[in-house]
Specification:
Elements lengths: L16 H12 L1 H10 L11 E5 L10 E3 L5 E4 L2 E5 L9 H6 L2 E5 L10 E4 L9 E14 L2 E3 L2 E2 L6 E2 L2 E3 L2 E10 L20 E10 L14 E3 L31 H10 L14 E9 L14 E3 L8 E9 L9 E3 L14 E3 L11 E7 L5 E3 L2 E8 L19 E6 L5 E5 L9 E9 L7
Parallel strand pairs: 18-19
Antiparallel strand pairs: 1-4, 2-3, 3-6, 4-5, 7-12, 7-13, 8-11, 9-10, 13-14, 15-25, 16-24, 17-20, 17-25, 21-22, 22-23, 23-24
């Protein structure tokens, strides 16, 4: 570790105040010192302190930080970690300017056994809509609860029992800033930092005319604005997220006029993408139909991946196909299978390989989505993450001619699993597929 380590050398050696404070600093700031290296927030520049959150998002699912909360006149606030960057200038202490961040986890419950505390909004009897702001107030290194401790005066030896503060705590609370009703409502600005407290916006909430303690917020009433942070580039992070003008209030796309129209009419702009769509998922998929009697994924809706909920995402994919007709002695195999699995006198044609005919023939690429159904089969509703296109004049027949628009990857909108899509399970087209598919993070608070 990069910190001084307290060392007690002698039996009976005195322990002083600075020794105890060193122990507290080293242990209490361990996670923040690690976060500083992983996140690399901008250092304090004499005026600005970096602020961010790490939102609540399970690996197997998704959720926004601020979500609807039923007919309660409130929103539900899910857990997040509030973070402020260094508050010390380089000239004062270069090391502190580099890494002295503070963070605190907000995790509350309404007592129902689930995460999430309510943030309530004032009724709207004005006859005009308004925007309210949900924000976090974060006070680093605040004095903890006072306790009584015996203290011996070092000069006289007299014993007293004053109240003292023995802990510094990282306080974070969620608050609401009420906006001004208007025919063209504008969102209120967050409070200015001051007095050791930093204010982090989480979401603007549209409060419709007639809103009361029993009103229900809709997903389209919520505009997330939290400054979501991801793993730093220098720490190995490759961040996939929407361009910031897809969601910045008052920006080029979500302009003041656009916000006013949304606030007045309740229709969320179609171009809006959530700032909480940070990160994404990539998968590589190998599908082997070279032996129709024992396919790798048997069945027209065989599960390909159920490690995530794949709903409410955008997809980009590349597909490589190879069939027996192009292989020496009708032998093909995945390149990682290795010589021990080869048969016959010739090495196989590998899947994938760089000597393919080309894009649109042995290789195709495209985009997909998992918001709305492309395929309805009885109770099954699926959205196509990938669908291989059939041969055409611009897509001359080759290996992919055997596919004929019968195969893809589909997200089951009932359970969120990624599945194989075949229009007919028999006969299986006799080829191998290698698929590289990238997915965005889910769109939280979609509908």
């Amino acid at each position: 570790m990069a910190e001084p380590i307290y060392q007690h050398e002698l039996d009976g050696q005195e322990v002083e105040e600075e020794d105890m404070n060193l122990l507290g600093t080293t242990s209490g700031l361990a996670d923040d010192r690690a976060l500083a290296e992983l996140l690399r927030l901008a250092p304090f520049d004499g005026t600005n302190t970096a602020k961010a959150i790490l939102p609540y998002a399970l690996r197997a699912g998704d959720s926004a930080t601020v979500v609807p909360n039923g007919a309660t006149g409130s929103a539900r606030i899910l857990p997040f970690r509030a973070i402020v960057g260094s508050r010390t200038g380089v000239a004062t202490d270069p090391l502190a300017a580099w890494r002295d961040i503070r963070s605190s986890v907000y995790a509350q419950t309404t007592g129902s056994g689930a995460f999430g505390a309510a943030a309530s909004f004032a009724p709207n009897t004005s006859g005009l809509p308004r925007w309210d702001l949900v924000y976090a107030a974060f006070t680093p290194d605040a004095n903890g609860t006072q306790v009584t401790r015996y203290v011996r005066d070092p000069a006289t030896g007299a014993i007293s029992s004053p109240t003292v503060v023995t802990t510094l705590v990282q306080n974070v609370v969620v608050m609401v800033e009420q906006g001004t009703p208007s025919a063209t409502p504008a969102p209120p600005a967050p409070p200015g930092d001051g007095g050791g407290t930093y204010y982090i916006p989480l979401a603007y909430v549209r409060i419709a005319v007639g809103f009361s303690a029993t009103s229900t917020l809709l997903p389209a009433d919520l505009l997330p604005v939290a400054p979501v942070v991801s793993l730093a580039r220098i720490a190995g992070g490759l961040c996939l997220q929407p361009a910031n003008q897809q969601f910045v209030p008052g920006g080029a796309a979500l302009s003041a006029a656009s916000l006013a129209a949304w606030g007045a009419g309740g229709r969320r702009p179609s171009f809006l993408l959530s700032p909480e769509m940070v990160g994404g998922e990539s998968r590589i998929v190998a599908i082997d139909f070279s032996s129709p009697s024992s396919p790798s994924h048997p069945g027209a809706l065989a599960i390909v991946d159920d490690s995530r909920d794949w709903r409410k995402r955008l997809f980009r994919w590349t597909c490589f196909a190879y069939g027996p007709a192009a292989a020496t002695s009708n032998q093909i195999d995945f390149v990682w299978a290795g010589p021990s699995l080869w048969s016959g006198s010739h090495p196989p044609k590998f899947v994938p390989n760089a000597s393919a005919v080309g894009v649109g023939q042995d290789i195709q690429w495209g985009f997909g989505q998992s918001f709305v159904a492309d395929v309805l089969l009885g109770s099954f509703a699926g959205a196509l993450a990938m669908l291989v296109n059939p041969p055409s004049a611009s897509n001359p027949p080759s290996q992919l001619a055997q596919i004929g628009e019968t195969i893809g990857l589909i997200v089951d909108l009932n359970d969120g699993k990624l599945k194989l899509y075949l229009r007919s399970s028999t006969p299986y087209p006799p080829f191998m597929l290698f698929v590289w598919i990238d997915a965005t993070a889910p769109f939280p608070n979609w509908i």
